[in-house]
Design a protein that fits this description.
Distance between the termini: 70 Å
Strand order of the largest sheet: 1-2
Largest sheet: 2 strands, antiparallel
């Protein structure tokens, strides 16, 4: 019984929204946290200035998180748009399959006469 409860993931809700379903959220924050830690630690090791090291760490966290977020969301929206176009084309292909508008083996559209 306890094994079944461990396998179910509980949603993480922030501002009435499940953040586990937001594309690019997890990877953006993981890269941001890592870069903030490395930037702040690296600055501290070279200068021993704790106050400026925290500023550098937080700044690199914000910069990397936001830049990766925008880049990832841009790529995601382009891919989603392409999939939408492909879905429309595939739907039209199934509608026209076997008719005079079928371009699968012909390579060109034949004129269809509407003789009544």
């Amino acid at each position: 019984m306890s094994d079944d409860l461990d396998d179910i993931q509980k949603p993480v809700i922030i501002f009435k929204r499940d953040i586990s379903n937001i594309p690019c959220f997890r990877s953006s924050f993981l890269y941001g946290i890592g870069s903030g830690f490395v930037g702040g630690l690296g600055y501290f090791l070279f200068t021993s200035n704790t106050r400026m090291a925290t500023h550098v760490g937080f700044s690199s966290f914000v910069l990397v998180t936001m830049s990766y977020w925008f880049h990832c969301r841009w790529q995601w929206s382009k891919t989603k748009f392409s999939y939408g176009q492909l879905q429309t084309i595939m739907k039209k292909h199934t509608e026209y399959e076997g008719t005079d508008y079928d371009l699968t083996n012909k390579g060109e559209v034949h004129e269809v006469s509407n003789e009544a």
